[in-house]
């Protein structure tokens, strides 16, 4: 990834006199640096959220034990038929898919809560390596697991990877132009679409969930390559800033693209009262985000597994994967629109997301007469439910950099 397109200002000498600024690099170099930044942070956003999304898409498979220990060559065995006159309205797992959501969210939440307390003391390289190793370990552990508990441990590793990677890579954006944030946002949306679509496509093609997860091990490797490439340029930047004498041995092409850094020790230290004042000013952003996340995951991991249409060409597990893929497609579109349109009233999107929560279906009516086969949900009704994830994903417009 390239650095900023702006020129790098030289440090002041000991007498307080400033030297003339370095000449600006050619326009072609600045444009090349812009696209290197864009592609680099798009890849980082994609790779960082990929394992997180795949685990949510595979939640139904993880909990339903569709892989027999001795036979990994099949996907989606025929579900046990449910009588049409059964009083059970749902086809549920003994453990809700919300369990996968908790394993995928809680570790990330804990990391984000503890990160301000001292994560900045840990160098970037170990954080990037840990994130990549956890992502690869999550795919391997879930792929070879035969119990729900072990699979959930693999989901926890994916959550650690996503949370640690997010606080690491987003902190790197402070060394680059502001435009990289929108590219990171688009990359996280792309992770949702490509992650859900790849899992859906490979399993629909007949690949077992185990082999599907193992085929995705290249994504953590790509994340390590992209992250360490960004750190390499950042090391050149810091070295040239704090040690001007090393500029002669540094790469001139890299130095010409580096953004100016503030002098060491120039950071401000806010008091507790000042930090509380800043926090109160952020509440009008925090409250809509909380509302969006609550409605989003309540529907995605709490209700989607209950939206099951029997006697169709799609099994229950396949329908769940389609719901996730359609939702992630909408997420990608909304997060990629950050550079096209800006919506100031984020509370409106949060309210829209809450309004998409479907009402509970009516209770079955008891009958004394011999039961006859009842008509199933017609295709238009099923189409409405398949369109529902697109409406749900519009709330992600208010969370451009979040998972």
TrEMBL record:
The chain crosses the membrane at residues 39-59, 98-122, 134-160, 180-202, 214-239, 282-299. GO terms for cellular component: endomembrane system; lysosomal membrane. Pfam families: CLN3 (PF02487). SUPFAM superfamilies: MFS general substrate transporter (SSF103473). It is a multi-pass membrane protein. Its main location: membrane. Residues 1-31, 67-89 are annotated as: Disordered. Belongs to the battenin family. This is Battenin.
């Amino acid at each position: 990834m390239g650095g900023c397109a702006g020129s790098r200002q030289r440090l002041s000498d000991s007498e307080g006199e400033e030297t003339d600024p370095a000449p600006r690099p050619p326009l072609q170099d600045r444009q090349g640096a812009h696209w290197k930044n864009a592609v680099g942070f798009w890849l980082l956003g994609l790779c960082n959220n990929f394992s997180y999304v795949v685990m949510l898409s595979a939640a139904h498979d993880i909990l339903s034990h569709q892989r027999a220990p001795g036979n990994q060559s099949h996907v989606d065995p025929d579900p046990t038929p449910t009588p049409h006159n059964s009083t059970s309205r749902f086809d549920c797992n003994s453990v809700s898919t919300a369990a996968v959501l908790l394993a995928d969210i809680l570790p990330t939440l804990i990391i984000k809560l503890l990160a301000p307390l001292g994560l900045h003391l840990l160098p970037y390289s170990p954080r990037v390596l840990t994130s990549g190793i956890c992502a690869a370990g999550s795919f391997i552990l879930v792929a070879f697991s035969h119990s729900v508990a072990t699979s959930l441990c693999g989901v926890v590793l994916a959550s650690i990877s996503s949370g640690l990677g997010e606080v690491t890579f987003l902190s790197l954006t402070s060394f680059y132009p502001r435009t990289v944030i929108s590219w990171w946002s688009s990359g996280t949306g792309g992770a949702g679409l490509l992650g859900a679509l790849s899992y859906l496509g490979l399993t629909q093609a007949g690949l077992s969930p185990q082999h599907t997860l193992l085929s995705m091990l290249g994504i953590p490797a790509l994340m390590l390559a992209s992250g360490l490439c960004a750190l390499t340029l950042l090391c050149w930047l810091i070295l040239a800033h704090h040690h001007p004498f090393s500029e002669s041995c540094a790469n001139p092409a890299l130095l010409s693209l580096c953004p100016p850094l503030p002098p060491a020790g120039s950071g401000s230290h806010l008091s507790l009262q000042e930090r509380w004042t800043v926090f109160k000013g952020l509440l009008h952003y925090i409250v809509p985000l909380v509302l969006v996340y609550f409605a989003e995951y309540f529907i995605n991991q709490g209700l989607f597994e209950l939206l099951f249409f029997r006697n169709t060409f799609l099994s229950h597990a396949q329908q769940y994967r389609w719901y996730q893929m359609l939702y992630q497609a909408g997420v990608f579109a909304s997060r990629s629109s950050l550079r096209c349109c800006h919506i100031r009233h984020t509370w409106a999107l949060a309210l829209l997301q809450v309004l998409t929560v479907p009402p509970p279906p009516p209770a079955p009516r008891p009958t004394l007469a011999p039961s006859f086969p009842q008509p199933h949900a017609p295709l238009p009704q099923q189409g409405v439910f398949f369109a529902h994830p697109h409406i749900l994903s519009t709330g992600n417009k208010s969370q451009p950099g979040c998972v």
